[in-house]
Design a protein that fits this description.
Number of domains: 2
Number of strands: 6
Oligomer: single chain
Shape: elongated
Structural class: alpha+beta
Largest sheet: 6 strands, mixed
Length: 151
C-alpha cells in the first residue's frame, strides 16, 4: 500500500487488512493531533517515536510498541454536548426520540395486521405491556383498540 510522509520526519504506512472498513497503519511519528474524528475503524502500531491525540476518550498518548485503535463513534463531544446537540437537531432527547421511533414502527406493524406481541418485540419494546403503556401515553388509546379500529 501507499506510504504517506508525515511532517517532522514521520511516516504512516497502511498495511493490508482482510477486514472491510478497518485500516491497519504502522507509524513512525512524533506528532500531536488535535481533537478529530475518524471515518473508519483502525488499528495502529507505533514503531518509533510517539503520538499524542485528543479523542472522544480524552488525551491518548502512545509510544514505541504501543497499539492504538480508532473508532468512528468517537466524536470528541462530552455526553452533555451530545445531548444538547441531539435535542437541538431532533427536537427530542435521545431516549424520547427512540421511544417515538419505536411507537411509529409498532403502529405501522399493527396497521399491517401484525399481532400485538410480535409488533412490540419487532419494534424494540421488551413486551406487549411496555408497548401498551407508551402507546396509550402517546396516542390516547391502547394498541388493541387501534388494531380493532383498522379492521
Amino acid at each position: 500500500m501507499a506510504t504517506d510522509s508525515a511532517p517532522r520526519g514521520g511516516a504512516f504506512t497502511r498495511l493490508p487488512c482482510p477486514i472491510p472498513g478497518v485500516d491497519i497503519v504502522r507509524a513512525d511519528t512524533a506528532r500531536a493531533f488535535s481533537r478529530h474524528i475518524h471515518d473508519e475503524f483502525g488499528i495502529g502500531l507505533i514503531d518509533r517515536g510517539a503520538q499524542k491525540s485528543a479523542s472522544g476518550r480524552g488525551i491518548v498518548e502512545a509510544g514505541p510498541g504501543d497499539l492504538i485503535t480508532v473508532n468512528p463513534g468517537e466524536v470528541g463531544l462530552s455526553r452533555f454536548q451530545f445531548l444538547r446537540a441531539f435535542t437541538r437537531a431532533t427536537g427530542l432527547p435521545p431516549h424520547a426520540y427512540l421511544v417515538q421511533r419505536r411507537l411509529q414502527r409498532a403502529r405501522r406493524l399493527i396497521g399491517l395486521g401484525t399481532p400485538l406481541a410480535e409488533a412490540a418485540a419487532a419494534s424494540g419494546f421488551c413486551d406487549q405491556s411496555h408497548l401498551t403503556r407508551h402507546f396509550v401515553r402517546c396516542f390516547g388509546i391502547p394498541p388493541g383498540v387501534y388494531a380493532a379500529a383498522l379492521r
